[in-house]
Amino acid sequence: MIGLRHSSGMTRIFIDSDACPVKDEVYRVAGRYGLHTLVVANRMIALPDSPLIERVVVEAGPDVADDWIAERSVENDIVITADIPLAARCVEKGVHVLDPKGRVLDGDAIGMALAMRNLMTDLRSAGMMTPGGAAFGKADRSRFLSALDTLVNKARKPRLRPMTLPPD
What we know:
By secondary structure, the chain is α/β, with parallel strands linked by helices. The protein has helices at 23-33, 64-72, 84-92, 107-125, 138-156, and strands at residues 13-16, 37-41, 53-57, 78-80, 96-98. Helix 1 runs parallel beside helix 5 and helix 3 runs antiparallel to helix 4 (107-125). It is globular and about 60 Å long.
């Protein structure tokens, strides 16, 4: 499957596995719906034994895993990531994006998320101390599971395409 263009129309889940605290939850939901899941990392990681879960090991380097995901995900796939630039690239292609705390990053949310990320980066580079993110907790895990279930159902629904009429 690696390297082949996705053409079955089936929703797939891509996990940007660097520091992803919800991999087990993704595996459970993907198994329930029978979805192919690609776990992308730049090192070997342990995976459950399932024909639906595929390990993708990319070269080490900045953004190599992100580039792999962005290049291969297509409309109605789901990407799990906390990486805002990767999320923006995927949203632009019609891919559903969910962060590990259950926040859907769609066309409405991605602009604000990018602006906030850039602001915090600028503040840090200017020497300001910025607060870290809140610790990941049970409420985040629950919110993530609910949001992922909703996204899977949304992604799997057939979309009505606008009908084009022949020229007069």
